[in-house]
Amino acid sequence: MKKALILSQFALFAVSIIFGANYWISKSLMPDYLDPFQLLILRTGGAMAIIWIFQLFIKKEKVPFNDLVLLAVCSLFGITLNQGFLYIGLNKTSPFDASIIHTANPVIVMLIAAVVINEKITLLKSVGVFMGLSGALFLILTSNKSGSSMSSLVGNLFIFANGASYAIYLVIVKPLMKKYHTITVLKWVFLFGFIFSIPFIKGSHQHINWKIFTVMQWSSLLYIIVFNSFIAYILIVYALKHVSATNVGYYTYLQPLVVAIIGIVIGMEVPGFIKILAGLMIFSGVYLINKRI
User: Which residues are CB-neighbours of 92 under 8 A, at least 6 positions away?
Assistant: First the structure.
């Protein structure tokens, strides 16, 4: 059991690195090689293919029509809008801004859960929600004053919308995750997500200049599809079998550190005071939300 707990921590640490690196890797492909919608369709299509192949090796589950409709709604928020907003935002703003705003996701999830399923919000959690949202809004509204040429108000707003759509997905998909095998849920979510993503590219896939792709760009695309969309999720599922969801959530706060280190190493971005202050406000808010008295 102790070995499983240790391996779970290593798995979650690996996920933080995978997700942290993905911000820079995804941004490196846009806009010179792929536009946000092209990257959206390639990622969802690639991940869908891998998951459908993987599901051949697990026990088949019959999903009734009503749940398929609910899975379709999940895919709209969890895949199409979520990933679409992510790539549009990341194309316009800093990877560090995006990673900081994403740490506010637990705050958004709590607000949506309160509205959708009447989840109770205590006074302490209310303070946490206020601090978390204030930190996120502070970062968004000071985007053009943060000292980073990559920061963008519009881009950060799309990243916030990305987090909000994913939060809606988490609230809706939770009962389905309890009802069905993880891979069963994922295969339908990615299938519907891929279908819903097709209209957004408006035939732009015909204009991808594959000839300019080098080993670096092909490797980056493979990383996004295989590591960021499949392997990372498998590692999370493994970890959830041995540690709490709260423990998994804490590793989200390593991602801005990974993004910052990579940015400094490649000479692209050094986080300034405003971004660090916004991050601390969000971290404090999420801490209060998860604090048990």
Answer: 152, 154, 155, 158
How far apart CA 79 and CA 92 sit, in angstroms, is 20
Query: Alpha-carbon distance 137 to 92, whole Å?
Result: 17
pLDDT category, 275, cuts 50, 70, 90?
low
pLDDT at 280: 76
The string of pLDDT tens digits covering residues 97-151 is: 887 787 777 777 777 767 766 666 677 767 776 776 677 666 666 655 555 556 6
Which H, E and C letters describe the chain, residue by residue?
CHHHHHHHHHHHHHHHHHHHHHHHHHHHHCCCCCCHHHHHHHHHHHHHHHHHHHHHHCCCCCCCHHHHHHHHHHHHHHHHHHHHHHHHHHHHCCHHHHHHHHCCHHHHHHHHHHHHCCCCCCHHHHHHHHHHHHHHHHHHHCHHHCCCCCCCHHHHHHHHHHHHHHHHHHHHHHHHHHHCCHHHHHHHHHHHHHHHHHHHHCCHHHHCCHHHCCHHHHHHHHHHHHHHHHHHHHHHHHHHCCCCHHHHHHHHHHHHHHHHHHHHHCCCCCCCHHHHHHHHHHHHHHHHHHCCC
How far lies 62's CA from each of 128, 169, 180, 267, in Å?
41, 22, 9, 51
* Structure tokens, 233: 């999720």
Q: What pLDDT does 240 receive?
A: 65
What angle, 0 to 180 degrees and rounded to 10, lies between the N-to-C axes of helices 273-290 and 123-141? Answer: 160
Of the candidates 135, 151, 145, the one whose C-alpha atom is nearest the C-alpha of residue 102 is 135
How far apart, in Å, do the first and last CA atoms of the chain sit?
28
Tell me the pTM.
Answer: 0.80
Query: Are 176 and 70 contacting, i.e. CB atoms less than 8 angstroms apart?
Result: yes
